[in-house]
From TrEMBL:
Belongs to the MenA family. Type 1 subfamily. It catalyses: an all-trans-polyprenyl diphosphate + 1,4-dihydroxy-2-naphthoate + H(+) = a 2-demethylmenaquinol + CO2 + diphosphate. The gene is menA. It is found in: Cell membrane; Membrane. It comes from Saccharopolyspora antimicrobica. Its main location: membrane. This is 1,4-dihydroxy-2-naphthoate octaprenyltransferase. Pathway: Quinol/quinone metabolism; menaquinone biosynthesis; menaquinol from 1,4-dihydroxy-2-naphthoate: step 1/2. GO terms for molecular function: 1,4-dihydroxy-2-naphthoate polyprenyltransferase activity.
Length: 293
């Protein structure tokens, strides 16, 4: 019987370790916009609010949807509100939609200040993508499309959208930053789903990791984790300050070793945190280099 979750449990359920996935694209996009003399602080702050509320909302939505399906009943990963019985499913679902609503309000502010009203459709698409990842009768996260969605929503759309609403245009550097952030953001999910392959197979959750199998999922993680550094080299041919982004390799050493050497279960949990940290460092350095370099 579900009880009344504590404040600490609600905070844990929001999954703070995923916040770099929301912060990094806004930093990278804002840096790219500043490089075109398009920096706009109020819009940047509102874009960050949109991204933050969306990721908290999607975390609660996943908690709710996975919880009611029973896929979190024997979970190795982080604490879940519904799966643990700490909170009523309806309360977690409500929390998710409150966050989506706050993201929509912040998004309206971005649209109003930028004058780009067509972006309302993109905002609606983002909220739908957040809910139907594990929600609805046919969640696309259960059909192997989770990593692609993360790449699109928290990579391409988040970075280039942040850039566009400030600068009014996008650049090749911005596209490179979007691909780099999207690749690392997807790598976080790959690490998560690699850890959960055994339990997901039992519950019928067909993630991309379940479809690929253990070995190929590990190869995918390594590939995605290294993509941003190829981007660093390419952008570095025009802006040498971007090469400082190789510092983001440092927090990737441990998770890359864990994935390559076959770590499983709880041993993979730190990989999510460290990959997110690498993404944040890469976005800060790359965004700063694009802004001032």
């Amino acid at each position: 019987m579900a009880g009344m979750a504590t404040v600490a449990q609600w905070i844990e359920g929001a999954r703070i370790r995923t916040f770099p996935n929301a912060i990094a694209p806004v930093l990278a996009g804002t840096g790219a916009a500043a490089g075109l003399d398009g920096f706009d602080l109020p819009i940047a702050v509102l874009a960050l609010a949109v991204s933050m509320f969306l990721i908290i909302g999607v975390n609660f939505a996943n908690d709710y949807s996975d919880g009611i399906r029973g896929t979190d009943d024997d979970r190795v990963g982080p604490f879940r509100l519904v799966g643990s019985g700490s909170a009523r499913p309806a309360a977690v679902r409500t929390a998710a939609w409150i966050c989506f609503g706050l993201a929509a309000i912040a998004g309206l502010g971005v649209v109003f200040l930028s004058g780009q009203w067509w972006l309302l459709a993109i905002g609606a698409l983002c909220i739908a993508g957040a809910w139907f990842y594990t929600g609805g009768k046919r969640p696309y996260g259960y059909a192997g499309f989770g990593e692609l969605a993360v790449f699109v929503f928290f990579g391409l759309i988040a970075v280039l959208g942040t850039m566009y609403v400030q600068a009014g245009k996008i650049s090749g550097f911005g596209i490179g930053a979007a691909v780099g952030v999207g690749a690392l953001s997807s790598a976080v999910l790959v690490a998560n789903n690699l850890r959960d392959i055994p339990s997901d197979r039992v519950t019928g959750k067909r993630t991309l990791a379940v479809m690929l199998g253990d070995r190929d999922t590990r190869t995918l993680y390594v590939t995605l984790a290294l993509v941003p550094f190829l981007i660093t080299v390419l952008i570095g041919l025009r802006n040498s300050w971007v090469l400082l982004g190789f510092a983001a390799l440092l927090p990737l050493v441990v998770p890359l070793r864990a994935v390559i050497t076959g770590a499983q279960g709880r041993a993979l949990i730190p990989a999510l945190r460290d990959t997110g940290l690498a993404m944040l460092i890469w976005a800060i350095i790359t965004g700063g280099a694009l802004a001032f370099g």
